[in-house]
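thought: fold this chain, then report.
action: predict
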Amino acid sequence: MGSTNMSYLNPKTVTLIGIPGLEHVQFWIGFPFLGVCLVAVLGNIFLLIIIPTERSLHQPMYIFLAVLAATDLGLCVAIAPKMLAIFWFGLCSMAFDACLTQLFFIHALQGMESGILLAMAFDRYVAICDPLRHTSILTPLFLVQIILMVVVRATVLVGILPILLKRLQLFQSVVIVHSYCEHMAVVKLAAEDVHINKSYGLFVAFAILGFDMIFVFISYILIFQAVFRLPQKEARRKAFNTCTAHIVVFLEFYILAFFSFFSHRFGHVSPYVHILLSTIYLLVPPALNPIVYGVKTKEIRMRVAQICILKPDIQK
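observation:
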């Protein structure tokens, strides 16, 4: 886009252009994204139906998985409708307040997902390193406290981002080079001093993603140390198997998260590469989580089979 001297005072609307450089193929790019969203929605709805109704799944790991499923559904709802409307129908305009609302929900739900992954890592740590105290440590009250703390932390820290953006009045452009409203993409539109916005954005990223990643990493180091000390080979194999799903999701979530975060601030990555990867980062984990966690759980597999073939409950 060519440069312009025009500035905008308190804009009422913004324009999302989708994926810059790939506008001519956005229509077709929308179909694989739709497929990923459908897998995510169906998979997480199945989890939210199965986990509350299956008594054998009323355990901390699966309660956290249900919360993760609700968070993933929220992410799909926050991102997919507007993104597909841009790709397929050219509906690029969006109210500025609606953009800030989408920004809040996307980043808050990201923060909640990160917190739940940390809670799941803690659950695996206690289950493997201190199994005799697992039920006494992860009591129902403690689970509720963890979930509330994760939700409040993300809501409060992320909630300040749109407030800081709302105080900005002068913008050099209203065209957001993205397929959804992302914090730094909106910050870059401002024609005012945005050091506070950038600094606070960094603080939120490290206070949530950085903090969680460090402690998830420490948890798995301690878990692996405990696993390698197990005398039986079969016990080691079983312990590793219970951690495999968590490690896959953990690596996929945090690697793409930090690539998206740092490339927007410090990198020189092509815009379409950054936007594709940041969209994949937000939409693939919601589709991957039900598969990775659900397929490895016998009770979930059996319930999905019952729902799909419409048969009465199978006695276990």
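thought: worth noting. The chain has one domain: 12-309.
final: tokens above.
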